[in-house]
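Problem 12. The chain below contains 731 residues. Write out its predicted structure in C-alpha cell notation.
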Amino acid sequence: MKWYVVRVLILLPLTWIVASQTPQSSQMSSRYGGGAVEETGVLSRLVPEPVYPTIARRMIQQLAAMHLSGEAFDDHLSAVAWTNLIESLDFDHTLLTQEDITRLETKRFLLDDDMAKGDLSFAYDVMQLVRERLMKRCQMAEQTFKQKSPFDFSGHDEYQWKRKSAPRPSDVKAQEALWRMGFKNEYLALQLSRELNAEEKKEQQVEQKVDTTSEEEEDLQDGSIEEVLSRRYRTLRDAYLEMDSESVLQRALSAVANAYDPHTDYMSPLTFEDFNMGMNLTLCGIGATLRYDDGAIKIMELMPGAPAARDTREIRLREGDKIIGVGQGDGPIEDIRHKPMNRTIRKIRGPKGTKVVLRVIPVSDKTGTRTRLVDLIRDEIRLEEQAVTGRVECLTGDRRFGYVRVPAFYSGVFGEGSNQKARSMTRDLLRYIQQFNAQHVEGMVIDLRNNGGGSLQEALTMTGLFVRGPVVQVRDARSVQVLSSQGSIAFDKPLVILINRNSASASEIVASALQDYGRAIIVGDSKSHGKGTVQAVANLGDTKIYGADRVTTACFYRINGGTTQLRGVVPDIVLPSIYDALELGEDQLPGALPYSTVPPAYYAKTADLTPFLKKLREQASARLSKDTQYAASQRLIAHVKQANMEAVVPLNITKRRARMRTERALQKSQEEILNGNTQRKQTGPTRENDPVLREAFNILSDFIDLRGGAGVPVNTNGELGSRLFRLFGND
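Solution.
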C-alpha cells in the first residue's frame, strides 16, 4: 500500500478540536459538485461519485493491514458495520420500522463482499429510505401543528423519550402513532418551558437578579408553540434535503471503520481538511473537542486556555453540552441538527475577535427540553493557561504540603522546537517541586482531574521525578514494548494523585504506574476515562480526493500487565464527583475494545500501601459524613443517576409540571457543582471550594501519621529490572 502516509496520535479519542480559523465558504459544498443525484420524483436520490468505489476498497485493505486486531473485514465485522450504519441513520428508532429492518437484514453479512467490490449502494438505499420517512414525518408534524391546541394533556399517556434501546414500531401505522406521541411530548415540554421560564424571570426581577435567557424564551417569543415546532421540523427537513453524496460516503465508511472500534474512523476529504485545521492549536475559535451525537454536536472537552474554558459566566459551555444551533454575531441562529458535522465545525470557527452564538442543550438536561444561548468571542488559545500551577498549602499543626495542578501533558509549546528554552509540563512541574523541597513540605497532591492527556514523553519524564523503572507497556500487532521513566528522582515524600472521569491517556499512564509501584495514593471518581489505545492517521492517497483513515494501532498496558483500556484507573479511595453520574468515559462508547492483559513488566514496588488503605478510608468516611458541602454533592449524584435511568415521561400536564420543576432545581444544583462558582473558575480548586481536594490533603496528612513520618523509600531496582527485561525478553 504505497498510497498512504501515517501519523501517530497518542492524545484523547476526541474527534474534533474546534480551535481554528476563518471558514472557507468556497469549500462548503462537496468536493464533487455537491453530490450527484438521480431524479426519483419528489425527493432526489443521492448516488456515489465514480471515485467512491476505489476509496471503499482501499479503506478495507488499509484497516486489515494496520488495525491492532489484524482482522480482515469479514462477515462478523460486516454485521457490526450494518448495525452501525442503521443506528447512525435512525438513532432514536423512529424512522425505520421493524418491517424495514427485516427487509434490510438481507445485507447484514454481505457488506464485506460489497465493500471488496466497492459497492456502496446499500448505504445510499438506506439513506434514501430514511430521508423519505423523515419528509413524511415533517409533513405530518406541520399538519398537526396547524391546529390550535391540538392535544389533550389531562389523560395518563406516557412517552418513552430515551429510545436508543427501545423497540422499533412494528409497521408504518405504529410508526405514525409513535410520531404523534412525540409531537405531543414536544408540545407539552415547550408549553411548560414557557410557563416555568416566565415564573423564573418574574422571581429574578423581584430579587433584582441579572436576567438569564434560555432558548425557549428567545424561541417562543417569536411565534406560538405551533409555529415554533413547525419551524423546527422544516429545519430538520431542510437539513436532509441539503445532504450531499459525500455525507453518505462519510456515514457509510465510518460505520465500517467503527466496526473495529469507536476510535477507528474514515475522514472524507472535507472531514480530513477540518481535522488538520483542528490539530493546529494556534488558530482561532472557541477551543473545544467535539463529537457527533444523535444529530447534535456534543462537547467532549474544553481546552485549557481557550475562550470556552476561560468563560466564567453563569451561562457558559460545559463538557457534555450538545450544540444544536450556531449564529454569527447578532444574526439569526441556524439549526444545525442532523447537518454534516464538518459544515457545523466551519460555522463555529471564525476570525479572532468575532462573536459566535451557540444554542446548546445543557448536560444537566437529559430530556433535551431546555436549551440555552451561549455567546463567545473567538480567540487564540492561550497556551499559558494549560501550564502547571502550584502552591504550598499550610494545614493545622504547621503541616505544609505542596499542591500542583496539571491541566495537560504539553511539550515544547512555548519555545522554539525541542531546545532547552522550550517549555514542557515536566520542566514546569520540576520548578514547583524544587520550591516545595526548599520549603520542606511533607508531601504533595497532584491534581490530574480533567487532564485529557498529551505527550507520552512527558508522561514518562514526569513519572521519573518520583520513581525509576518501567512506566507503561505498548502492544501493537507484533510485539510488546516496555517504556521506562527518564531523568532523576526529584521528590521522595508521600504523594496523593487526584483523578476523575475526564482524566485520560497520559494521565492514566502516570496514575497507574505510581499506583502499581505503591508510590502514590490515588483518589477520585470510581475510575478514570479508560482510553488506552493509540491511533494513527493514514492517507488513502491524495487526501483532497480520497480522504484518510484514523486507525487504532496499539494499546497501552500498565506495568502490572492490565490495560487502562475500558477499566481506566480505579482509585485506592473513591470520592465520586458529579462526573461519575454522567455518561462519560470509554465504557460509554459502543464497540469499545475490551479489557485485556499482557505479562507484567519487571519492576519492584517502592512500598505496599495496602495495609494503610482500610484505615485511610475509614478516617475519610468519618470526616466526610460531617462535611455538608460534600454531602450535598453526593445527594445530587444519586439524583442524577436515578434521573438517567428514567426513560419515560408523563404526558399529563400536572404530573409533567411537577417533574419539570424538580428537574430544573436538580439541573441548577448540578451545574453549580459541575462548574463551581465564579471564584473557583477564576482561582482554580481550593480547599474552601472543593471538598474532594480538601479531603485529599486530609488523606495525605493521615497517611504521613500512619507511616510515622514523611520519608518514603524510592526503590531503583525497577530500572535495573527494566534493562534486564529489555535484554532477555519476557519468556
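Discussion. Residues 531 and 565 are 5 Å apart (CA to CA). Students who got a different answer should revisit the alignment rule from Section 12.3.
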